[in-house]
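HUMAN: Mind making up another protein with tokenized structure?

ASSISTANT:
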Amino acid sequence: MNTIMTYLLLLFLCSPLGMAQSKSQNKSTDIELKDVLTEGEWVHPVKLGNKFVIESEAFTFCAGRRVRQQIIDDTGIHTSWGEWSLEKSDDGHVLVLSGDQLLYRGRFPITYSEKERAFYLHVGSGDRTWRYEGQRGETPSPCTSSK
């Protein structure tokens, strides 16, 4: 009986209907990640001794292609604007950041943890990973106000 069920499952998955369903599931995952990124602000705190935040970097992804990057440190708040996009790769998703004002530009593999409400950017040759925590955004949103 198990052999018959396995055979039927394989036939379904390899059929045009099964393939169409799996393609639509991938597309919805892409849309969901874009939707998640545009909710609120994403903060990467730099801590001293795992306790004291000495600097933080925050991204606000607007529904269009604009992105705001804020770096907060002992010299103040430094705001810059650029563009972002999300691409699908064989290994997952890639976040593309561009704009002369941004401190970090380029293509970064990105993974999202729904459980932690955080995303991870894999920087450089993959040996460094930065964690950005989701936080409630400003009111009014910088995405709706002018630069």
Q: What stands out?
A: Helices lie at 2-14, 16-37. The chain has two domains: 2-34, 38-135. Residues 2-34 form one domain. Residues 1-28 have pLDDT under 50 and may be disordered.
